[in-house]
Write a structure and sequence with these properties.
The chain is mainly alpha-helical and 137 residues long. The protein is built from 5 helices and 2 strands. It has a two-stranded antiparallel sheet with strand order 1-2. A hairpin with a 2-residue loop joins β1 and β2 (29-31). α4 packs antiparallel against α5 (117-136).
């Protein structure tokens, strides 16, 4: 069961990699998607140093984080309204997500992937600020 959860988690973590729309040349062929993304990351790390992907790749990934946050808000609102019938459930889901994202970005990712604090703050902001905005508006 934990292996399945790990695979689902990894799918979500690598989702932007699979949909990378920008082409890179690999072995004389223009490639998009995962292999193109991996080449772009390798090029950025070589140019900028370990843990620094550069502005283009960071912006690309943050677009997915922001979209994921919006999708989560819509899903949590739908679940709270249609299955739990409670405003309390909505706020519980949203605050639980904030706690989980905080744990992920500031403990799990630095420990498991060596993620820099700056990247964690940026990722956390693109996930959590839309949720907080929704809660307070």
């Amino acid at each position: 069961m934990s292996h399945l959860i790990g695979n689902i988690y990894w799918l979500f973590v690598t989702l932007p990699d699979h949909f990378y729309p920008f082409a890179n040349e690999i072995n004389g062929r223009r490639i998009r998607g995962m292999r193109s993304y991996q080449k772009a990351v390798a090029r950025a790390l070589k140019k900028n140093g370990a843990g620094r992907m550069g502005y283009k790749l960071t912006l690309y990934r943050q677009t997915f984080h922001f979209a994921g946050s919006i999708i989560f808000i819509v899903l949590a609102t739908f679940l709270a309204k249609n299955f739990f019938g409670s405003e309390v459930a909505l706020y519980f889901l949203l605050y639980t997500a904030i706690v989980a994202l905080t744990f992920q970005e500031f403990y799990l990712h630095p420990k498991r992937y060596g993620q820099h604090l700056k990247k964690g703050v940026i990722d956390w902001s693109f996930w959590v600020l839309p949720i907080l905005f929704y809660i307070y508006v």
